[in-house]
Amino acid sequence: MTRARRAGRAAALACVLAAALLAGGCASLGGAPGAEAAQAADPAAAAAAPAPAPAAAAGVRIEIDAPDNLRTLLERHLDLVRLGRIAREEVDDSEWSRLIDAAPLQVRELLQTEGHFQPVVTMERQARRGDGEPELVRLIVQPGERARVARVTLEVEGPLERAAAAGDGHAAATLAQLRAAWGLPPGAPFRNGDWSDAKAATLARLRAAGFVTATWSGTAADVDVAKNEVRLFLVADSGPLFRLGSLEVEGLVAQDLQTVLNLLAAPRGAPVTETLVLDFQERLQKTGLFEGVSVTLDPDPAQAGDARVSVRLREAPLQVYTVGVGVSANIGPRASVEHVWRRVLGWPVTAVNEVEWGAKRQAWDGELSTHPDDRLYRNLLGVAIERLESSSDAVLSQRLRLGRTQDTGRIERLYFVEAERSSRRPFGGTRSDAFAISYNYHGVWRQLDSVVLPTEGFSFAGQAGVGRSHGTDAASGYFTRAYGRLTGYLPLGRTWYGQARVELGQVFLRSNMVVPESQKWRAGGDESVRGYGYRSLGPLVNGVVGGGTALATASVEVARPILASMPSLWGAVFVDAGNAADSFRALEPVWGAGIGVRWRSPVGPLRLDWAYGRELRKTRLHFSVGIAF
Predict the structure, then answer these.
(1) 135-149, 158-172, 212-226: least confidently modelled range
(2) Cα angle: 614, vertex 617, 621; to 5 degrees
(3) To 5 degrees, how large is the angle CA 152–CA 120–CA 189?
(4) pLDDT at 402
(5) Where do the H-state alpha helices sit in 125-168?
(6) What are residue 9's phi and psi, to 5 degrees?
(7) Is there a shared CATH topology between the 148-237 domain and the 430-625 domain?
(8) Which band of pLDDT confidence, cut at 50, 70 and 90, is reported for residue 431?
(9) Distance from C-alpha of 377 to C-alpha of 389, rounded to nearest angstrom
(10) In terms of CATH, what superfamily is 148-237?
(11) What are the pLDDT digits (tens) for 379-388?
(12) Phi/psi class of residue 542: alpha, beta or left (left: φ > 0; alpha: ψ in -120 to 50)?
C-alpha cells in the first residue's frame, strides 16, 4: 500500500468518526434529521451515545373561571397565559411547572390592583394525555368583596398652607375645593387605577389654581386586610402661587395693544389660574380680530410673584368677503354675501354687513361695534331689513338698534333701544302696519361641558322688554314682553344622552293695541315643534296663521352613538309639543315625534330629523346645524 493510499484511508476514517460524533451530539439536543439512521448504521456508537433529554412540552391550556372584568385582566397580564401564547412549543416541562406553581400568587397580586385583597384562588390540573392533548390548568377565582376607602387624609404644605392659615380667600377656597373634589372619598371602592387617577386629578387642580409647580411630597395607601379597608394619606407641596406680572404681546400690526389688555380682564397681581389663561385665550379668539392665538405662562418659580405671560398673535385680514350658499328645511335655498371690516378707517371698530337672498327670506343685516373695553363691553349700532315669507303671509320688517353688549365665558348680555316697523300682508288679505319703540334686555347663561357639543349641563336664554306701539286701526299704548328658554343636557348611563327643552313667552298689552309682528311668536320648525313647517303654528285670523302674544313649546330627546367605530354619528328619538296663541288659555298644543341622525362635527351638531305631525297626519324632514341658545 502506498503512502498516498494510507493517507487517503486515514482521512476517510477520520470523516466517519467525525460524522458519528456529530450525529450523537445532535441526538442529545432532541433528534436532528438523520440521527436515527447514523445510530442504526453504527450500533456501537448508538450504545455509547447519552440518553436523550425529555421532549419539549406540548403546551398547556389555561381556563380562568372569574367575573368577566377580572378574567380579562388575568388573561392580559398573567405570565402563564402570556407565555403560552407566544412560546407554547419552546418551553420545557420544568419551566411550565414553575409558571403553574406561581400562578395563584400572581393572580392574588393582580386582583389587589382591583381592590380585592382576600381572594380565594383554586387551581385544578389535568395531566396531558397520550393523544397530544395539552395539559389543562383551570384557575377558579373567587375575588371576594372589593375593599373600600375608610379614611382620606389630604394635607398641603408650603405657601398654600400658610396662606390658608392666614385667611387668604383664594388659598382657603383652593384647599376646600381640593378636598371636596377628591375622587376616592370614604366609602368608595378602591382600585389602583382610580387611586392613580384621583392623585393626578388633584395635582392638576392644584396647578390649575395657580400653583404651577405643585408636586406630591408623599402618598400612601394603607390596607387593613382583616377589615377589608384602605386608608389613604396624601401630602402635596404647593410651591409658590403665580401672580400676574408683565404681559408680553407679539404679532400686533394693525390692532391696538389696549384691546388685548382689555381682554385680559384681570388686574396685576391676580392669581394666574388655568381658568384665567384659557378665558383670556378664548376671548381673543372670539373677537374675530386674530387668526392665531397662543397664551403661555413662564413657569419659573423664582418669578412666581411677578409672573410673565406671553401672548403670540396672528392678525386676521382687515377686510374679508364671504360668499355662501345653503338650504334649510325652514326657509329653503339661499345665497349670501358677508363683508367684515375689522378696523374701520383706523378706528378700533368692526363693521359687519350681510345680505341674504333666499326663496322665503330676503334680508340685510348691518352692525357697527366697538372693540371690547376693560369690562368686556362693546357698543353697537345695528340696522336690519327683512322680508320673511311663511305659508300664510309675508312680513316686511325694518329695525334700528342702539345698544351695549358683554360676552363672557358663561354669560352673554345685550341691552338695547330699538325702533321697529313691520308690515304684514296675508295672502289674500288686508295689509296691516305696526310701529314700536322699546327698551330690551337679552341674556344667555350657560353651564355646559361644551358650548359647541354639549352633553351635560344647561343653558338659559331670557328676554325682557318694555315699549310703546301703535298700528293700523289700533290704539297707542305701552306693552311689555317676556321670554325664557331652558335647555338641559344629561348623560344617561355610558352611551345614552338626554336633552330636554321648555320655552315660554308672552307679550302683555291691551286688547285694542298691536305690536310689530317680530315682537310676537309663532311655533313650528327645527328648533320648535318638529313635524310642522317653520312658523306655521299660531292663532288663526280669518283662516290665516299670524303671530301670537303667548308661546309655549317643549321637547324631549334621547340619543346615542350608532356605531362604536363612528362615535360622532348618533341616532335619536324625540317628542315635541307646543303652539302659539293670543293667550295661554287659548293655546292648544300640537304634537310631533320622530327619529333623527346627528353628526357631531367640530362646528356643532348636524341634525337630520324625520318627524310626524299628529294634527297634520303627515311627516316632514328637518335639518339644521349648530346649537340654538
Answers:
(1) 135-149
(2) 85
(3) 20
(4) 97
(5) 159-165
(6) -65, -40
(7) no
(8) confident
(9) 35
(10) membrane protein fhac (3.10.20.310)
(11) 999 999 999 8
(12) left
- Is 35 in a helix, a strand, or coil? helix
For 175, the grid coordinates are 384647599
Nearest Cα neighbor of 574 from 590, 595, 554 is 595
Residue 322 Cα to chain centre, angstroms: 30
- Residue by residue, DSSP assigns 64-79 as EES-HHHHHHHHHH-H
Smallest CA-to-CA distance from 255 within 352, 370, 368 is with 370
Q: For residue range 45-90, what is the model confidence (pLDDT) as tens digits? A: 333 333 333 333 445 677 888 888 888 888 888 887 776 665 555 6
Q: What is the pLDDT of residues 570-611, one digit of tens each?
A: 999 999 999 999 999 999 999 999 999 999 987 678 999 999
User: What is the spatial distance between Cα 507 and Cα 517, in angstroms, rounded to a whole number?
Assistant: 11
CA distance linking residue 387 with residue 363, whole number of Å: 6
* Average pLDDT over all residues of the chain: 85
Q: b vs e for 297-324, b when ≥16 Cβ sit within 10 Å of the residue's Cβ?
A: bbeeeeebeebbbebebebbeeeeeeee
**Distance (Å, whole) CA 482 – CA 509:** 12
Domain ranges of the chain: 3-48, 60-142, 148-237, 244-315, 430-625
CATH of 60-142, one of 1.20.5, 1.10.10, 3.10.20, 3.30.450: 3.10.20
- Strands 244-250, 307-315: pairing is parallel
Q: Which CATH class is domain 430-625?
A: mainly beta
Q: What is the predicted pLDDT for the residue at 125?
A: 77
Q: How far apart are CA 264 and CA 283, in angstroms?
A: 8
pLDDT score for 133 = 67
- Report residue 184: phi and psi, to 5°: -125, 75
Q: Which residues of 372-398 are buried (b: 16+ CB within 10 A; e: fewer)?
A: bbeeebbebbbebebebbbebbebbbb
| Cβ–Cβ < 8 Å for 561, 572 | no
Q: Which three cell numbers stand for residue 500?
A: 330636554
**What is the spatial distance between Cα 40 and Cα 213, in angstroms, rounded to a whole number?**
78
CATH fold, domain 244-315, is Ubiquitin-like (UB roll) (3.10.20)
Question: Beta strand pairing status for 477-492 and 349-358?
Answer: unpaired
**Residue 561 dihedral angles phi and psi, to the nearest 5°:** -60, 140
Q: Report d(CA 294, CA 292) in Å as an integer.
A: 7
For the chain, what's the residue count?
Answer: 629
Cα–Cα distance, 427 to 394 (Å, whole number): 8
* Cβ(557)–Cβ(500) below 8 Å: yes
pLDDT band (50, 70, 90) for residue 35: very low
Three cell numbers written together for 249: 404681546
